[in-house]
Design goal:
Elements (H helix, E strand, L loop, with lengths): L4 H5 L22 H18 L4 E2 L16 E3 L3 E9 L12 E2 L12 E8 L2 E8 L18 E3 L2 E3 L2 E2 H10 L2 E5 L8 H15 L2
Parallel strand pairs: 3-5
Antiparallel strand pairs: 1-2, 2-3, 4-9, 5-6, 6-10, 7-8
Length: about 200
C-alpha cells in the first residue's frame, strides 16, 4: 500500500494559524470596531512621523456640526476615512483569503480622502483614494478595477491581490514589510513618508 505523506497530513491543516507569532496576531481577536480604532491610531501616528499634522480623537470626529464624517484630520483640512482589514483564513480551503473587506464608506461628500489599510501576516498595504476618484455602484475604479456594493447606509469596497498589484503599479498603493518584532525598516519609513507627503500636501 502506498502512503502519500502530503495527503495524510492535510487533515491537520485546520490548525494552520498564519497570524500566530506575528505583530498582527492580536488583531484577529478584536472586534471589527476595535480593529478599526487600532488602524486609525496606527495611521495617525505614522502620519505625524511623516511631519504632517494629524488630529485623531477616537470617535469624536464621526458626527461633526457640518455633517462631515471622518476618522482623521490630516494636514489641517483633509478629512480622512480609514478602513482597516485583515485577510483572514478561508474556513474551507484553510488558506489565507486574497481579499480584504471595507464597509460603511459613504458616498456623500463628507470626507476628502480614503486610506485603506490592508494587513497580512508579514506587513501591510496602504492605498489612497480621493473622494473624487472613488467609485460607487456599477462603475469600476479606474485603477483598481473594483466595484462597490451597497452596504447598510453606505458602500462596501473590497481589495484583492490583483487590485492591490494594480494600485502598486499606479502609485496609489504601497506595501510595507514588518518584521517579527513589529519593526519597519528605515527604507520603508522613507517610503511611507514620501507617499503620505505626496498624497496630502497638495
Amino acid at each position: 500500500m502506498n502512503i502519500n505523506i502530503i495527503e495524510s497530513l492535510k487533515e491537520f491543516e485546520k490548525d494552520y494559524k498564519p497570524y500566530e507569532n506575528t505583530p498582527f496576531e492580536i488583531l484577529l481577536t478584536l472586534t471589527s470596531d476595535d480593529r478599526g480604532k487600532w488602524g486609525e491610531k496606527f495611521l495617525h501616528n505614522l502620519i505625524k512621523l511623516c511631519g504632517l499634522s494629524s488630529k485623531w480623537d477616537g470617535d469624536s470626529n464621526t458626527s461633526n456640526e457640518d455633517g462631515s464624517i471622518f476618522d482623521i484630520l490630516i494636514n489641517l483640512n483633509r478629512r480622512t476615512e480609514v478602513k482597516t482589514a485583515t485577510n483572514g483564513l478561508d474556513k474551507k480551503s484553510r488558506k489565507l483569503r486574497n481579499h480584504w473587506q471595507h464597509e460603511n464608506i459613504y458616498e456623500e461628500n463628507i470626507w476628502d480622502d480614503l486610506l485603506l489599510l490592508d494587513i497580512n501576516p508579514n506587513g501591510f498595504y496602504l492605498t489612497h483614494i480621493p473622494h473624487s476618484k472613488m467609485c460607487f455602484g456599477e462603475v469600476r475604479h479606474t485603477i483598481l478595477e473594483k466595484k462597490s456594493t451597497k452596504h447598510l447606509t453606505g458602500w462596501k469596497f473590497d481589495s484583492s491581490r490583483a487590485s492591490l498589484i494594480r494600485g502598486l503599479e499606479a502609485g496609489i498603493t504601497i506595501y510595507i514589510d514588518v518584521d517579527n518584532n513589529g519593526n519597519i525598516s528605515d527604507d520603508d519609513k522613507t517610503k511611507i513618508r514620501r507617499f503620505i507627503v505626496e498624497k496630502f500636501s497638495n
